């Protein structure tokens, strides 16, 4: 990195430390992700030059993958076969929420292709790239997808915190620190995952390795609490810095559209989560988090922070991600065959300018 990139990173991390320190005072879960995220979002809107290099973000996603993979045990694997129903309901919920959100975005002036790729809850980067190649509006898709993840992250932790009476996982049952040497393998695992074309390779590659080592009882990765805080800090800064260049007025207009779409997705998927709770006896909060339309890394982190069966949550988000990646070629063929459709008028995003 050159001097300007180092400076941008330093400013982003400094804002993150300040935001994380303030949020930690509230006792809220994911304080070291939410605080840096909000601080960087405000800094970006204020015109500060912020950036978290993709390599650094990928490295800490790899640490998260190691953390999640280490939580897989032989006892848990024996339960995978019983999750077929929740997996099926998840996929039906994804389809239903995508259709509902796409209908909303069509009313907001999106063309059909952009509305669909902006509404699919998952694999954000792939949806932005493939959506553009399929004839969609890259900027609209990117902003809608990014704001969905942002809003879910901002809504769910405070919501769970309030519903639990301001409490969270106290960490009393945390395992002792172990397997820290696995971090040294990440420079090998990350490019290997990309060469194998794994979806979300930075997360999934280390996750699979840590899972295999845990199941074989070779080693179980367990970072210290401060290490988990640093991981959240970097990932939170990376999300917030993504919104550089957006004016407050512009962001407010886009936030209104995406806010409605996010609430629609949460309501639809929440209904399917309730079915999982009633049919399978899965705790309601765990089922809802497993179906929530956020990123796999962020939702898994929230599950860890609240001690809400992070492996069940991560499994369902991973299933969603893999199925969506497999479905992408079908989406591309479908939308490339469609003729352009005139935009709607109900809530033109220019109203936020």
UniProtKB/TrEMBL annotation:
The chain crosses the membrane at residues 84-106, 112-130, 142-163, 200-222, 254-276, 288-306, 312-332. This is AbrB family transcriptional regulator. InterPro entries: AbrB_dup, AbrB_fam. Keywords: Membrane, Transmembrane, Transmembrane helix. PANTHER family: REGULATOR ABRB-RELATED.
């Amino acid at each position: 990195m050159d001097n300007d990139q180092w400076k941008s990173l330093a400013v982003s991390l400094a804002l993150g430390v300040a935001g994380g320190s303030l949020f930690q005072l509230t006792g809220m879960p994911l304080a070291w992700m939410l605080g840096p995220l909000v601080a960087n979002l405000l800094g970006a809107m204020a015109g500060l030059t912020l950036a978290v290099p993709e390599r650094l973000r990928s490295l800490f996603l790899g640490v998260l993958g190691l953390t999640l993979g280490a939580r897989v045990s032989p006892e848990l694997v024996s339960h995978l076969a019983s999750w077929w129903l929740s997996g099926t309901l998840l996929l039906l919920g994804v389809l239903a929420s995508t259709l509902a959100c796409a209908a909303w975005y069509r009313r907001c002036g999106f063309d059909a292709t952009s509305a669909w790729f902006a509404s699919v809850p998952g694999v954000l980067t792939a949806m932005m790239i493939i959506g553009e190649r399929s004839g969609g509006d890259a900027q609209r898709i990117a902003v809608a997808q990014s704001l969905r993840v942002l809003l879910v992250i901002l809504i769910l932790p405070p919501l769970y915190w309030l519903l639990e009476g301001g409490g969270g996982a106290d960490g009393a049952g945390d395992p002792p620190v172990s397997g820290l040497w696995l971090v040294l393998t990440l420079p090998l695992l990350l490019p290997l995952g990309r060469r194998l074309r794994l979806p979300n390779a930075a997360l999934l590659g280390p996750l699979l390795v840590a899972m295999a080592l845990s199941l074989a009882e070779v080693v179980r990765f367990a970072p210290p609490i401060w290490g988990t805080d640093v991981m959240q800090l970097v990932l939170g800064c990376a999300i917030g810095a993504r919104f550089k260049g957006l004016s407050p007025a512009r962001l407010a207009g886009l936030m209104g559209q995406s806010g409605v779409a996010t609430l629609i997705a949460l309501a639809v998927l929440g209904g399917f989560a309730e079915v999982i709770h009633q049919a399978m006896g899965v705790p309601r909060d765990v089922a809802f988090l497993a179906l929530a339309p956020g990123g796999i890394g962020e939702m898994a982190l929230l599950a860890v922070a609240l001690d809400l069966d992070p492996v069940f949550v991560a499994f369902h988000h991973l299933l969603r991600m893999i199925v969506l990646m497999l479905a992408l070629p079908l989406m591309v063929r479908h939308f490339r065959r469609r003729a352009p459709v005139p935009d709607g008028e109900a809530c033109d995003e220019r109203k936020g300018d």
